[in-house]
Amino acid sequence: MPNWGGGAKCAACEKTVYHAEEIQCNGRSFHKTCFICMSCRKGLDSTTVAAHESEIYCKSCYGKKYGPKGYGYGQGAGALSSDPPGQNADLQPHE
């Protein structure tokens, strides 16, 4: 049977993607509804996508899975300080 419709195949669901509903990432085509994070299933767009090989993630899931590991990473904003070391020493109340 001939292949009518000739659009690209979606990388997620393998169905035909027509031009009006196509999103491209890393040379692959997706439906708008299939362009979601592989971990948390959140919808993605061109500013929130982070691709790794054939997988697509949101930036936060990508950082959790492929970001730096070890002590001091991923502690959140509470562990970060922009002050040089030792500068906060005189913040103790004086009596």
TrEMBL record:
User: Where does the record place the LIM zinc-binding domain?
Assistant: 8-68
Q: Name one Pfam family in it.
A: LIM
Single GO MF annotation: structural constituent of muscle
| Annotated keywords | LIM domain, Metal-binding, Nucleus, Repeat, Zinc
What is one term from the GO cellular component aspect held by the record?
nucleus
Where is this chain's protein located in or outside the cell? Answer: Nucleus
GO BP: cardiac muscle contraction; muscle tissue development; sarcomere organization
**What is this protein's name?**
Cysteine and glycine-rich protein 3-like protein
